[in-house]
Write a structure and sequence with these properties.
The protein is of the alpha/beta class. The protein has eight helices and seven strands, in the order βαβαααβαβαβαβαβ.
Amino acid sequence: KQLILVPNASIYSFTMFCVVVTTWLTWLALLLRGAAGLALAGGKQLILVRHGVSEMNVALDKQPWGSRGFRDPDLRDAPLTAAGRQQAMEKREEVSGFADRLELVVTSPLTRALETTVLAFGHVDAPVVATPLAAERLYLSSDIGLPPGDLGVRFPTVDLSHVRRDDWWYAPDNVQKYREWRPPGEYVCPGEPDDAFKTRMLDLVQWLNDRPEDTIAMVCHWGVIMALCGQDFRNAEIREFTLPAP
């Protein structure tokens, strides 16, 4: 386990303001480069879904990220809570409203997204594919995943062929050169820098555009959704956008 100590300072509201602004700037950069702006007309239909409430969401309600004395609670690949599972199941009716035109379901390989996918889309007659491109930006331990062999046992209906490495989440090429960008606190892993995240979001949009399907649902995370469309989603919220043609 790697422990990263950052001197304490800052307050939660300012921290989250900085995170939102930084992620919104990622969206703006993608838009200017022609890879975002999902509300623009002319491309595929993309239905974005944020996962249900996770154990990390609950932990951060008790000790907000960036608050004084913050310590990552080390909840690797945090699953949904009972409330989060209920949220996902309650979305089945909403999903049924567009299920007949849905050609593909894409999901992040993080457990909270996979659980949401299985519970909300399990009745849909469309293939389900997981890709690390849709995983959350690595902020905390909850954004470290599990090897595809372990995921395959738990989620046998999900195509995990795009999850090709056991350690598919972000890790710096050189830990010694890593520069901490997150708010002060104690962390158990490095965070994914802005440039790496922007590159991954560009790759995600290109991957979606390269797919043959015209209507795609994607179950993912707050940071990914904010980067793609500049909008703030609640847990288990669903919205539809148009992906611009490449």
